[in-house]
């Protein structure tokens, strides 16, 4: 008898001996990135375009989510259907052009599909992703400034700090714009 067909390798069972608060980031329906991706795959291209014009791959903490976003973004830009099935098809058709192993990316796609999102909330999920990225950017800027005190010439420190400040100002403007668009 033939072995059963598996569309994606099984997702690992959740670990129950961990702190529930710590474990909550592993639950897809509590993950803004997973919810955003799930909702993007359920809305029309016209509804998705303002979101993909705002989001970048770098906004995603999880590199697999970033890879899935890159695929969804590409499908929408090319005017192709961008639902779950077509994203899975993209994973299978272009395994060499993806930063992740195909099976692992399909596992992430299954997890995202299971996020049970509300498609009409896609702009709000995108806002949450941008907000998380914005908060991380301050940590990155602080680390860069701390490193600069040891590696950048004294005469160049002020300009370096100003560059970081301008980057944070731009990040703030981007965050403010998505907040205004979702009110």
Automatic annotation (TrEMBL):
Hydrolase in keyword set: yes
Highest rank taxon of the organism: Bacteria
Molecular function, one GO term: DNA binding
Keywords for the protein's UniProt record, in alphabetical order: ATP-binding, DNA replication, DNA-binding, Helicase, Hydrolase, Nucleotide-binding
UniProt domain DNA helicase DnaB-like N-terminal: residue ranges: 29-129
GO cellular component: cytosol
Pfam families per the UniProt record, alphabetical: DnaB (PF00772)
GO biological process: DNA replication
Protein's UniProt name: DnaB-like helicase N terminal domain-containing protein
Annotated organism of origin: Rhodococcus koreensis
Lineage: Bacteria, Bacillati, Actinomycetota, Actinomycetes, Mycobacteriales
């Amino acid at each position: 008898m033939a072995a059963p067909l598996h569309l994606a390798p099984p997702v690992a069972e959740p670990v129950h001996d961990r702190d529930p608060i710590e474990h909550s980031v592993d639950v897809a329906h509590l993950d803004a990135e997973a919810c955003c991706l799930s909702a993007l795959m359920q809305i029309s291209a016209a509804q998705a375009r303002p979101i993909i014009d705002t989001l970048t791959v770098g906004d995603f903490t999880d590199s697999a989510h970033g890879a899935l976003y890159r695929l969804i973004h590409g499908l929408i830009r090319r005017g192709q259907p961008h639902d779950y099935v077509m994203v899975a098809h993209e994973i299978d058709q272009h395994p060499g052009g993806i930063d992740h192993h195909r099976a692992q990316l399909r596992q992430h796609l299954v997890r995202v599909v299971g996020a049970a999102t509300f498609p009409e909330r896609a702009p709000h999920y995108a806002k949450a992703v941008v907000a998380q990225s914005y908060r991380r950017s301050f940590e990155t800027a602080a680390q860069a400034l701390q490193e600069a005190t040891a590696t950048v010439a004294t005469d160049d420190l002020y300009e370096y700090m100003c560059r970081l400040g301008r980057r944070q100002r731009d990040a703030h403007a981007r965050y403010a714009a998505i907040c205004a668009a979702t009110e």
